[in-house]
From TrEMBL:
Domain PurM-like N-terminal: 51-159
Family: Belongs to the AIR synthase family.
Name of the protein in question: Phosphoribosylformylglycinamidine cyclo-ligase
Keywords per UniProt: ATP-binding, Cytoplasm, Ligase, Nucleotide-binding, Purine biosynthesis
PANTHER family assigned to the protein according to its UniProt record, in alphabetical order: TRIFUNCTIONAL PURINE BIOSYNTHETIC PROTEIN ADENOSINE-3, TRIFUNCTIONAL PURINE BIOSYNTHETIC PROTEIN ADENOSINE-3-RELATED
EC number: 6.3.3.1
Superkingdom: Bacteria
Length: 328
């Protein structure tokens, strides 16, 4: 008996249809620095004019937020999450995202669903100013559950060596500034799925905010920024300390944080307050550490930005165990 690839669970025609649908969407994200075309063995990108270019890379996924998308059969937002999780990380070093690649894996390819997933990636790339230059779609029957997908992304950005932001300039007296999140973003969804019952509320799929335009606008204005932190898994407690040097501490006042309604839903009342702050962003999607004199410039440029804390010496911070953050 003859057995084809399709008999084994891989439909090559669906793969061809997937690529056909993507070509126009992918092209809409590209610029003159992208060389070659979709379908080549590898993607080529011309770096452009930099004096001392440093490439900054990041990779991430969407996590179990995908389970919410499967349940609601809504696939056009998680691609934005995927881009956001990657570009917001490289942005923390002052890097401008250049390009993005995606990996999509499934049991059997549904061209309609996959095109919706990629439409979200395209939207995210446009928000970030990054070219979608390639990716991989893998059909793996018997490995993934039917109807479910997994996604991963990879991005590369660039920054002049002299302009790298790594937190080393942070000093006592600097202020911690919050940029609001769009909601849960893409972290803590294993806990979220344990708290919420199906049908899940659609607001759980609100995509992660991409902060690239806002931060690059500040850098273009030559506003002095000493540190940048993407508030992802672990919330403020785990992410702000990543940019603070020994001998310093961030003191953040929780009462100043503007907590969105999503975190005030009844489902979250079962979670201890400490667990909430140690798991979710609680309304702060991104933070900046700037000198006090720069704060008015930041809030003038970004009206949603607001101060939530300051940088102190560890002795001033009343931080137990010498930690680099104290949430009051």
């Amino acid at each position: 008996m003859m057995v084809s690839y399709k008999d084994a669970g891989v439909d090559k025609e669906a793969g061809y249809e997937h690529v056909r649908r993507l070509k126009q969407m992918v092209a809409s994200t590209q610029n003159e620095q992208v060389l070659g075309s979709l379908g080549s063995f590898a993607a080529l990108y011309e770096l452009g004019k930099y004096q001392e270019p440093v490439l900054v890379s990041g990779t991430d996924g969407v996590g179990t937020k995908l389970k919410i998308a499967f349940s609601l059969k809504k696939y056009d937002t998680v691609g934005i999450d995927l881009v956001a999780m990657c570009v917001n990380d490289v942005l923390c070093h002052g890097a401008r995202p250049l390009f993005f690649l995606d990996y999509l894996a499934c049991s059997e390819l549904d061209a309609e669903v996959s095109s919706q997933l990629v439409s979200g990636i395209v939207s995210g790339c446009k928000q970030a100013g990054a070219a979608l230059i390639g990716g991989e779609t893998a059909e793996m029957p018997g490995f993934y559950q039917s109807g479910e997908y997994d996604m991963a992304g990879f991005t590369v950005g660039v920054v002049e060596k002299s302009a790298i932001i790594d937190g080393s300039a942070i000093k006592a007296g600097d202020v911690v500034v919050a940029l609001p999140s769009s909601g849960l973003h893409s972290n803590g969804f294993s806990l979220v799925r344990a708290l919420f019952k199906e049908p899940f509320p659609a607001e759980l799929l609100t995509p992660t905010k991409i902060y690239v335009p806002e931060i690059l606008s500040l850098l273009d204005q030559k506003i002095e920024i000493h540190g940048l932190a993407n508030i992802t898994g672990g919330g403020l407690e785990e992410n702000v300390p990543r940019i603070i040097s020994e001998g310093l501490c961030a003191r953040i006042e929780k009462e100043k944080v503007r907590i969105p309604d999503i975190f005030k839903r009844e489902e979250f009342t079962a979670v201890p307050e400490s667990e909430m702050w140690g798991t979710f962003n609680m309304g702060v999607g991104f933070t900046l550490v700037v000198p006090p004199a720069e704060l008015p410039k930041v809030t003038a440029a970004l009206p949603d930005a607001y101060q939530i804390g300051e940088i102190l010496s560890k002795e001033q911070c009343d931080s137990p165990g010498g930690d680099r953050i104290c949430l009051l």
